[in-house]
Write a structure and sequence with these properties.
Shape of chain B: globular
CATH topology of the largest domain in chain B: Rossmann fold
CATH architecture of the largest domain in chain B: 3-Layer(aba) Sandwich
Bound molecules: thiamine diphosphate, iron/sulfur cluster
Structural class of chain B: alpha/beta
Strand order of the largest sheet of chain A: 2-1-3-4-8-7-9
Number of helices of chain B: 12
Helix content of chain A: 25-40%
Largest interface: A-B, 33 and 39 residues
CATH superfamily of the largest domain in chain B: Thiamin diphosphate (ThDP)-binding fold, Pyr/PP domains
Strand order of the largest sheet of chain B: 3-2-4-5-7-6-13
Distance between the termini of chain A: 51 Å
CATH topology of chain A: Rossmann fold
Oligomer: heterodimer
Number of strands of chain B: 15
């Protein structure tokens, strides 16, 4: 008789064996995201880190307008919904009043790098001690597929129907590289959530960023290069392949800036 | 008796902000109110630990206010007309999410970049909603530097009582002029926060969230109905209005803020010349003292509304009076302040000589 047969359910279903679980820092509300969308995974890993660090009572999140505007329905921590583009200003208001609490924003590319560019750059430049989660899906998701500042050259969107022409529409904005130049910025990294290994790296990046925040090192930004199957008009698998084949070559993954001595 | 000082309007307002136990100020420089940030930068943090931050724009400032107010803090921003225009989206969000905070608009002449001279041309923007959606601010109009002090305290109280943004609508003249003020004593800063404040989910309790988003129209309507009911309570309970010489008045002069002060002088001039003129001065522009006008309209032969704009409050006066007595208007624009003589002359020509 092998050992396996002697095990009871309760012996197997233990924390150490768990491959997948829902952290207590996520609510039971079903997410509204489209099938295959990276938002759900990004929410989950962020909230896993919050749970593992035991900071769910000490953290305030800010979700501005974009597909993730309802993040407060899913993240089981105190949250504020912010106007389109203004997450970094809202987060500044909170953090300045509660420097001992953790504060994060969760923003799309249109939000962070178009309408909210000023708020993003100035919060970074002031070295606001916050975590910015930057979801780069190269498109405006919520408003159904218009061109974003991050849309790739030649990429089709509803407002670049013949592909993004950089001569008239400008070049994709690599805002993470831009922000990394600023002395107030402690940590900038670019990750993805389209494959298991990358999900793990993203989780590590969140943990590092929150750890740096705890130590008061300054502005931390975790960019997540992700998909928008609905507005890219692809299946989830096709969209993940597009992330690998097109997005990541343009937006290479890895750390862009790390705190000194790290 | 509180401490007596000779102070500039903007500085008196700033001093009152510190003394009212304000937790944070976020603002962006603009004439004629830059003294506020400058005064706070010197005095505030050292005295009470208050957060003072120069934002990158008025758009950022009002959203910092949103964040801090949403986390339960007592917060204030100030600006002048073009800056207030930039804040309107944020103010609408604050009203929608029902966050208390205090704003002050030290109005200058417009439209556009306009002039840095005093004006009252932002009445509509302040009283009728400025930003998008059906919302109201509680609007207080000081006419003296003393009231720049008193209305900071009152503004915070009303904002917190109703979970609603309140605004001090003043102008460049009151902001810049010096008068004697009596200051109230330093109040403690808050140590307790309301249950809805998002300052870290309390252990063993539900998370809180601040939002103005309600995608289901039925729910959005319900929230609108609730907001309107709240505004109706304000209209019942919070109206403030000053009257002078109205008991025997045959005519009324009316105006708000600085305009009301000039009306009083003009009314005294009229009385010296044998005309029984009274003055009505709304202190709260929302809620508007409709009843005061409606009741006095039964007794007087006419009302002259005086403003430093093209005629804004006069619309509310006419609505309140509802045709019971003629309401005429006299205004100066673009940063010009009317003199008592001009107002008196306008009164004589319209009401006594019947010229149009
Ligand atoms: C002031 C303002 N302008 C425009 C909009 C409309 N709007 C809502 S979301 C959005 C773009 C969202 O794109 P992104 O930030 O990339 O987030 P995603 O939906 O892709 O996650 C726009 C333009 C708005 N809500 N407010
Ligand atoms: S529209 Fe795009 S970004 Fe938004 S939920 Fe759907 S797939 Fe995700």
């Amino acid at each position: 008789m092998s050992d396996i047969e002697m095990l009871e359910m309760d012996d197997v279903c233990i924390k150490e064996n768990e491959m997948y679980y829902k952290p207590s820092t996520l609510t039971d509300t079903p997410m509204h995201y489209c099938p295959g969308c990276g938002h759900g995974t990004a929410h989950k890993v962020l909230m896993e880190v919050v749970e593992e660090m035991g900071i769910e009572n000490d953290i305030i999140g800010v979700a501005p307008v974009g597909c993730s505007v309802f993040a407060y329905h899913y993240m089981n921590v105190d949250m504020q919904q912010a106007a389109h583009g203004r997450a970094c200003a809202v987060a500044t208001g909170i953090k300045r009043c509660y420097p001992e609490r953790f504060v994060f924003t969760y923003q799309g590319d249109g939000d962070l790098a178009a309408i909210g560019t000023a708020e993003t750059i100035h919060a970074a430049n002031r070295g606001e001690n916050i975590l910015v989660v930057f979801i780069n899906n190269g498109i405006y998701g919520m408003t159904s597929g218009q061109m974003a500042p991050t849309t790739l050259p030649g990429m089709v969107s509803t407002t670049s129907p013949f592909g993004r022409d950089v001569a008239t529409m400008g070049h994709p904005l690599k805002i993470s590289e831009l922000l990394a130049q600023l002395p107030g910025v402690a940590y900038v990294t670019r990750q993805s959530v389209h494959e298991a290994n990358n999900v793990k790296r993203t989780k590590k990046a969140f943990a590092k960023a929150l750890e740096y925040q705890k130590r008061g090192l300054g502005f931390c930004l975790v960019e997540i290069v992700t998909n928008c199957p609905s507005n890219w008009k692809m299946t989830p698998l096709q969209s993940n392949k597009f992330v690998t084949d097109k997005m990541i070559p343009f937006y290479p993954l890895g750390d862009i800036k790390v705190p000194e001595g790290k | 008796m509180g401490e007596i000082k000779l102070m500039k309007g903007n500085e008196a307002l700033s001093e009152a902000m510190i003394r009212a136990g304000c937790d944070a100020y976020f603002g962006y420089p603009i004439t004629p109110q830059s003294e506020v940030l400058e005064y706070l930068a010197i005095h505030a943090h050292a005295r009470t630990g208050m957060v003072v931050l120069q934002a990158e724009s008025e758009v950022a400032a009002i959203n910092m206010i949103y964040g801090a107010a949403g986390a339960g803090k007592r917060v204030m921003t100030t600006s002048s007309s073009p800056g207030m225009s930039l804040m309107q989206e944020g103010i609408s969000y604050i009203a929608g999410a029902e966050l208390p905070c205090l704003l002050a608009n030290v109005v200058r002449g417009g439209p556009g970049l306009g002039t840095i001279q005093p004006s009252q041309a932002d009445y509509f923007q302040s009283v009728k909603g400025g930003g998008h959606g059906d919302y109201k601010l509680i609007v207080l109009a000081p006419s003296t530097v003393q009231e720049m002090v008193d209305f900071v305290k009152l503004g915070f109280e009303l904002a917190e009582k109703y979970r609603n943004p309140a605004m001090i609508l003043t102008d460049g003249a009151i902001g810049q002029m010096m008068e004697k003020v009596e200051l109230f004593d330093q109040m403690p800063r808050k140590t307790e926060y309301p249950d809805w404040a998002t300052n870290g989910k309390p252990k063993g309790k539900e998370r809180r969230y601040i939002t103005s988003l309600h995608i289901q129209p039925e729910l959005m309507e319900e929230i609108n109905v609730r907001l309107q009911a709240k505004y109706a309570v304000m209209e019942e309970e919070e109206v403030l209005c000053q009257t002078h010489y109205v008991d025997d008045a045959e005519y009324l002069f009316t105006g708000f803020g600085l305009g009301a002060r000039i009306c009083l002088k003009a009314a005294e001039m009229a009385r010296e010349n044998g005309y029984k003129v009274g003055v009505v001065r709304p202190i709260t522009l929302f809620p508007f003292p409709k009843k005061v006008y409606s009741e006095l309209a039964d007794k007087v032969k006419g009302i002259l509304d005086v403003e430093m704009n093209a005629g804004q409050m006069v619309e509310d006066v006419r609505l309140s009076v509802n045709g019971k007595t003629p309401v005429e208007f006299y205004g100066r624009m673009g940063g010009i302040i009317a003199s008592p003589e001009e107002i008196y002359d306008k009164f004589i020509s319209t009401f006594i000589k019947g010229e149009k």
